[in-house]
Amino acid sequence: MTKKLGRVFMLDDDLIVLNLYREMLEKNGYEVFATANAYQFLLYARELMPDLVILDINMPEITGWEVMSRLAAEEQTSEIPVVVMSVLADKALAVQKGAAHYLNKPVKPEDLLEILEAYCVGNKKHDVLLLEDFEPMKKTLRQRMEERKWSCFEVNDLKAAKRYLQKNNPKIVVVNLPHNRLGKVMNELKHPLVRYLESYEQVDDLEELLK
Question: Please, which residues have CB within 8 angstroms of residue 126's CB and are 6 or more apart in sequence?
Answer without folding.
Answer: 151, 152, 153, 168, 170, 171
